[in-house]
Known about the structure:
By secondary structure, this protein is an alpha/beta fold. The protein is about 45% helix and about 10% strand. The protein contains 13 helices and 7 strands. Helix 3 links the parallel strand 2 and strand 3 (about 90-95). The model has no long low-confidence stretch (mean pLDDT about 85).
Amino acid sequence: MIKTNKNLKIRNPLDHPEAKRLKHCIEAVLKGHVFGALIISKGGLGKTRNIREIIEKHRLKENEEWIHVAANISDTELYKILYDHRDKIIFFDDIGMAAKTNAGITILKQATETKDGNNRIISWVSPTYILKEYPHSFEFEGRLIMCLNIKPNDNNEDIAALKSRFLSCYLEPSNKTVLEMIYSIRQKLSEDLISTEDFEEIFDYVCEESDENSELNIRVFKNAIVWHRMTKNWQKHVLEDLGFDDDTRYVIDISSNKGLRGKAATHEWVHLTGKRKSAYYSILRQLKSKFII
């Protein structure tokens, strides 16, 4: 069970104390204090939506003063984007390989490094025809916000050099924090699809059944709302999404999904797991005591 503070006064997930560093990184770029911010965290925490909201609060016009790139791009496409939008703030939302190749890392380093205290020159002499319409070098006057869902290899010298040029944040919140983030945006999540009472029921159930090893994020909770609307047996689907161990999922499947009882159930259990019948009944009693099945 995870105990949360429902009275925590936050307006969106990035207002949470554990996420303040991320918020400060974004605002430092928007205010021109740094050339780039690097945000690293697992997916499903609402980063994209909330970063966009921070940018919009600064009254920047999308596609005029800033752009959002959410695609797995190549290093040549990275070069083209930086040239085409060389005077804008560019929000790279998990751009994949371009942030991992040697050429891509070099380009990003050039975009955030000044050799004479002022000019940032990006250069790349490429034999590929893709860049034939582009200059071999140009001055970059924009700023970068980069989100990655996978932590880069810190042992790689080029990546370490890249990170040193960015104001960086590695966000790996506890499940307690994730639940508090979820509760802070409960009205946005429910979107009038369920009542306040139903939301509280789902939230309390997830808190009750979660621990710090559960696979919990905002997307999982949004799915829980859908399960609640779709079926009276929504709890078992939520448990599966939370990453209950294989044995528990087997018992749920045998007893609830397949509807097996007695010898048929234990025979299936032994066949699947090779474990004793007593283990099956032990898990079954726990699930029944919590009204899961």
